[in-house]
Amino acid sequence: MNTKFTGPLVLALLGIFITLPARAGDDAALQNPAIKRFYSELKTLFRKQYPKATSHLLKDSIHFESDTRVFIVHEATMTGDWQDPWETRGPKPGGILCDIRLQNGKYQEQAVTPQTFDTRYFKILLLVPYSDKHDEHIVVQLSYPRNVKEDFLRQFTELVNEFGKYVD
Fold first, then answer.
1. 67-98 in b/e burial notation, b at 16+ Cβ within 10 A?
2. DSSP string, 61-105
3. How far apart are CA 143 and CA 93, in angstroms?
4. What pLDDT digit, counting tens, does each position of 120-154 carry?
5. What residues contact residue 44 under an 8 Å CB cut-off, 6+ apart?
6. pTM
7. Cβ atoms of residues 142 and 98 within 8 Å
């Protein structure tokens, strides 16, 4: 082994490991502290029904996922023509997929909410509750298979519609 190159290599590797803990401490800045309690409530609900679900809170977004895959879907347009197929992630039977974004002000998009879309492989529930107290809304897309437990959907919808109680 050539010791001429070993010293700088060891120092470079040591430098990487020394800086890692400092970066791990910065991860807290990547989470919006105002929605941590809401995330915790959701996590409890998801883990009860989907014990293997993974989740994360990143800035103003929350994500939950369990037993998903990529589907190739295509749908008819409003004129009856078929769109080109595209890939989309969705839950397998027994799985779940959920994305939530916290946004300021009232919802200004075109989609009427609440609304459920049927992709033939799974359904997508779109919820956009608003909190007067915080002047914020959340955009929720919950993708679920046909065999989802109705009790989970009920509890999830109630929790989401009351999100303002859990935002600090």
1. ebeebeeeeeeeeeeeeeeeeeebbeeebbbb
2. EEEEEEEEEEEEE--B-TTSPBPPPEEEEEEEEEEEEEEEEEEES
3. 11
4. 899 999 999 999 999 999 999 999 999 999 999 99
5. none
6. 0.79
7. yes
For residue 163, CA distances in Å to 49, 62, 110 come to 20, 13, 22
**What tens digit of pLDDT does each residue of 82-111 get?**
888 889 999 999 999 999 999 999 988 888
- Rounded-to-integer distance, Cα 107 and Cα 128, Å: 7
Distance between CA 62 and CA 127 in Å, rounded?
Answer: 14
Q: How far is CA 162 from CA 56, 76, 99, 150, 167, in A?
A: 20, 35, 17, 18, 10
Q: Are strands 130-131 and 86-104 parallel, antiparallel or unpaired?
A: unpaired
* Whether 61 contacts 30, CB under 8 Å: no
Phi/psi region, residue 135 (left: phi>0; alpha: psi -120 to 50; beta: rest), is left
Task: Determine the 3-state secondary structure of 54 from DSSP.
Answer: strand
